[in-house]
């Protein structure tokens, strides 16, 4: 992850990308050879949330730079901007539109149906449609999205696998056998899979460990993922009330507040989506591990597949088998009292995941029922 994080600054230094504060965009100078024009519709939190938006955008920028094409992002003020932001790219002639995150899923599906000649990518969503190719709010998913919307690609990760690794680390760090996890909303399957994997991973170390869980919101995307001040306030109450000595955050920018609250409380924290020891140094003194999705790799590879003519509508899956997910290095290991052989145990578990021999999610994977 270190090289990828530094690559952004290297590109800026040589002038390969120009970032415009007033237009909220970045552009790679076209050099011929590709006709792609890439628009990235971010979720609340913006391109510097040190998490999901930032690394998805970095992947799009990398693809644009490698292909010599234009890429631009837009940031919503709230959920009411999703449709408008996507339509803005279409009106400007963009032929690849990326939606970042679960909250934009419905808007991307609607746009894909209305614009069959434009490629759409939705990060972290398996598109669910009815028999007519419209978004299905009941989640019956009677329609085949790959057939009905052949230029719509859903990028999915197996979050439970890296949640499981985070649970192993947390259980080894906990002296009280009481650990915590905080998610954005309990209706987001990606969030839920992280949390479910965390529980199973922790229980693989200590079957009697107690895992306390809470969510930041019942549906407000800003509270759930874009408000670190709220995240810190909420977490500062959760930590002493539940008596946890390790906490895992699965809530984007809101969860960055959790990391700070953990440091203030003198407990250990686990980051999410990216290596947060590198991306959020404010909390370095208490971060021991991060459960990573290779967001930049996934977005970049999907865009390049579209450019190469090899992309197909449907799902592109990233998991342990294709190194689309992974764990960060262990940090503060001595201070946290982590066993000397913990990394080898994590490596062994990951190898089992690659082989498909380790169960990292319950039968109702992605559905919160507790």
Structure overview:
The protein is of the alpha/beta class. It has 13 helices and 14 strands. It has helices spanning 2-13, 52-67, 82-91, 105-114, 145-148, 159-173, 189-205, 221-225, 228-242, 252-265, 276-279, 295-308, 342-355, and strands spanning 17-20, 25-28, 37-41, 70-74, 96-100, 119-123, 152-157, 178-183, 210-215, 246-250, 268-273, 287-293, 314-318, 325-327. Helix 2 (52-67) links the parallel strand 3 and strand 4. It is globular and about 55 Å long.
Percent in strands: 15-25%
Summed up, the domain count is 2
Low-confidence stretches: 1-23, 26-31
How would you state the average pLDDT, rounded?
A: 91
Helix content: 40-55%
Strand/helix succession? HEEEHEHEHEHEHEHEHHEHEHEHEEH
Through-space gap between termini: 34 Å
Number of strands: 14
Strand order of the largest sheet: 4-3-5-6-7-13
Estimate the global geometry from the Cα principal axes.
Answer: globular
Radius of gyration: 20 Å
CATH homology superfamily name of the largest domain: Response regulator
What is the structure about, briefly put?
With 370 residues, this protein is of the alpha/beta class.
Give a topology summary.
Blueprint: H1 2-13, E1 17-20, E2 25-28, E3 37-41, H2 52-67, E4 70-74, H3 82-91, E5 96-100, H4 105-114, E6 119-123, H5 145-148, E7 152-157, H6 159-173, E8 178-183, H7 189-205, E9 210-215, H8 221-225, H9 228-242, E10 246-250, H10 252-265, E11 268-273, H11 276-279, E12 287-293, H12 295-308, E13 314-318, E14 325-327, H13 342-355
Parallel strand pairs: 3-4, 3-5, 5-6, 6-7, 7-13, 8-9, 8-10, 10-11, 11-12
Antiparallel strand pairs: 1-2, 12-14
Helix pairs in contact: 2-12, 6-7, 6-13, 9-10
């Amino acid at each position: 992850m270190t090289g990828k994080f530094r690559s952004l600054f290297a590109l800026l230094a040589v002038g390969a990308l120009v970032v415009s504060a007033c237009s909220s965009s970045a552009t790679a100078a076209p050099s011929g050879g590709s006709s792609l024009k890439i628009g990235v519709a971010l979720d609340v939190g913006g391109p510097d949330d040190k998490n999901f938006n930032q690394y998805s955008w970095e992947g799009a920028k990398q693809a644009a730079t490698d292909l010599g094409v234009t890429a631009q992002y837009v940031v919503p003020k709230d959920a009411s901007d999703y449709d408008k932001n996507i339509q803005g790219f279409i009106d400007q002639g963009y032929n690849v539109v990326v939606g970042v995150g679960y909250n934009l899923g419905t808007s991307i599906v609607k746009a894909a149906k209305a614009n069959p000649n434009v490629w759409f990518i939705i990060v972290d969503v398996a598109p669910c449609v009815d028999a007519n190719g419209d978004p299905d709010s009941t989640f019956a998913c009677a329609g085949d999205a790959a057939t009905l919307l052949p230029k719509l690609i859903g990028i999915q990760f197996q979050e439970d696998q890296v949640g499981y690794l985070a649970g192993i680390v947390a259980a080894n760090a906990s002296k009280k056998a009481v650990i915590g996890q905080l998610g954005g909303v309990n209706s987001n399957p990606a969030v839920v899979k992280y949390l479910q994997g965390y529980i199973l991973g922790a229980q693989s170390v200590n079957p009697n460990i107690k895992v306390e869980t809470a969510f930041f919101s019942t549906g407000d995307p800003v509270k759930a993922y874009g408000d670190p001040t709220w995240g810190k306030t909420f977490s500062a109450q959760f930590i002493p009330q539940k008596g946890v000595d390790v906490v895992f955050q699965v809530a984007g920018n809101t969860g960055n507040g959790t990391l700070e609250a953990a440091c203030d409380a003198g407990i250990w924290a686990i980051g999410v989506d990216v290596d947060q020891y590198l991306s959020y140094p404010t909390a370095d003194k208490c971060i021991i591990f991060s459960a990573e999705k290779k967001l930049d790799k996934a977005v970049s590879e999907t865009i390049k597949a579209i450019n190469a003519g090899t992309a197909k509508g449907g799902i592109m899956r990233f998991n342990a088998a294709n190194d689309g997910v992974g764990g960060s290095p262990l940090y503060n290991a001595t201070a946290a009292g982590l066993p000397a052989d913990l990394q080898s145990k994590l490596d062994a578990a990951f190898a089992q995941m690659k082989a498909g021999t380790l169960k990292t999610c319950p039968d109702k994977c992605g559905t919160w029922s507790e």
